Every structure is written in C-alpha cells, then in structure tokens.
Amino acid sequence: MAGAVDEQCAEAALVVLVERVLSHEFAEIPITYMGLARLIAFPKPHTGSNFAGRIGRTLAVIGARLERCEVRGEPVPRIQSLVVSKSTGIPGDGFAGCRRGYQNLPAEEKRRIAEQEQKKVYEFGGKWLEVLEQLDISYRHNLSRCV
Hints:
The chain contains five helices and four strands; from the N terminus they run H-E-H-H-E-E-E-H-H. By secondary structure, it is mainly α. Helix 1 packs across helix 3.
C-alpha cells in the first residue's frame, strides 16, 4: 500500500513526465532518476539503495494508477520508461514490473524494450492530458512538487 508521500511524489512525477512528453525542448530525451527527484523536490538523500527503493516505489505507484486508465479505447503506455539510470541510460530493474523477466535480460534487450515503450509514450502525445484528467491530477506547468 502506498503512503501519502509516495502518492504525492507519484502525482508530481507524472506531471513532470507529461510535461517532458509535451515539451519541444525535452521531447524524446529520457530523464535520470536523480533528475526527476530534483524536479519534484523528492525527499533526500538522492543516492544509495534507500533512494533507489524509494524512487522505485514512486514509479510503481504511477504504474499502478496508469494500469486503470484508458484513453479513447487505447491502453496508456508506461510513461515511467522515460526514467533511466544515469550509468546505463535504461530503466532500472524496477521496470521489471512492466515486463516479465526484464531484470534477467541482457542490457541491449532491456534498451530495446525501453525504447519501444518510450516511442509509445511520445506517440500518445496530448492524450496524456486526458490521463491526468482521469486521475484528477492538475496539470500545473513547472509547479510539480511532492513535499
């Protein structure tokens, strides 16, 4: 069960990710876990295994909420695929919840899967605003914070 902070951070993170998708400046550029944490004022520390687990829970909350959404009969792509490790450039093993066996795949296969999902995320375009509306999340440009 997600806590209040996880829910707040998930909403803030989702808004930031939607802003990235709709932005001409950042379109098709993934964001690192730390970059996302900074943008949403995620509670510190921003390094170490505790951080990885906490930001992973936040992204899992996003995934769980998006699984219940559909726009115009179309399933919602996994926007959390845009969040990548600085060292590898691909989503971490927490993305395994989106794809069975992901954590056991070679890095190049993980990259291929992530890139396919990222393409779907960007192609979804303005429908992301409908997702936010379904989830009753206000789209507040550059005001997304989780604490």
